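Journal club prep, notes for RB
We'll compare a predicted complex against what the paper describes. Inputs for the magnesium ion case:
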Amino acid sequence: MSKNSQKVISKCKQLRSLLESNELEFILEAHNGISASIVESAGFKGIWGSGLAMSAQFGVRDSNEASWTQVVDMLEFMSDATSIPILLDGDTGYGNFNNMRRLVVKLEQRDIAGVCIEDKQFPKTNSFIDGNKQPLADIDEFCGKIKAGKDSQTDDDFSIVARVEALIAGWGLTEALKRAEAYRQAGADGILIHSKLSRPDEILAFAKEWAGRSPLVIVPTKYYSTPTDAFRKAGVDLVIWANHLIRSSVQEMEKTSKAIFDSESLADVEDKIASVDHIFQLQGAEELSQAQDKYLVQKSDIHAVILAASRGSELRELTHDKPKAMISIGGKTLLGRLMEGLKRAGINKSTVIAGYKAEAIDLLGIEKCINEDYEKGDELQTLICAEANFQ
Ligand code: SPV
Ligand code: MG
């Protein structure tokens, strides 16, 4: 299939397929543009826009201290940097049904494929901080929020996942199932059942009772040692690895900053960190330089040739050990002055043709050609020496 006839599958459709596929699927947390593109490069089919990770990278708490528009602005960078779908951790929807409606509209505008909202109250706090003290939302109010979100989406494939916090808050399996069923009936495209236990028992019990009524999503942060196959067998549809890039980058940043501080040098860290070229590559620098070649007519395309081969014997002893181009006037050589003038005119590439005392022409950053026959004083011949630099 030619490139142009390839059908691009919308991000909303891609996320919906992950939720509804018959395979167990996985998405990984990202918290900014570069981490999002790393998730995609690793091969993941989707991104979790984690509230914990995004608030952490802003340096604030996971308690709605970052405003929802700050979150959405960051998501835009993440979405622009990638071609896989993002499921936003939308906390409680940042308010009531009306805030939820506006959130969905703004997410669709920025090509975010779906949002997960949790049945807690605004402002929420992370489920792993005093989970059982956290008040849950009223079921009917939360169902209204789901309906309002579904009624606001313009793309049928935009997904709203309802996150059940009953197990986190210590309300038990029956309450969790009751809530999940109510949210399913309100129109949720999937149910995220969350747990803070280090064993998967309550999640597996939930999955058994849920019995595939709608796509089931889990976040095994605390029960991480459970073999993934157990989730597969339990009929889970989507696993969210929720915070592992922010945690790994924090650990590396701490190590690197301590090493640089302690050693007052970069020598020990240089080969332990990503190269500057790798950062350029992740930023897509290559594409920009191709685009520049295509669209930007630059003065720097102009290549100057400076003929500096002759001695300038009229200047006698002044040119005893250097060509006239290297005579200094007011602390600056003639050649240096000329190069500055070229730079000011936007001409950054020059070839200097040296001959007499060529070694004396030692200005930084110049490209030098030598005319061995400079004594003939044939300027055309001098010019020809630069021919190779114009291939
Ligand atoms: C997040 O990644 O922000 C989540 C998942 O909500 S958790 O932190 O496990 O609650
Ligand atoms: Mg969160």
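Talking point for the session: The chain has two domains: 11-242, 303-389.
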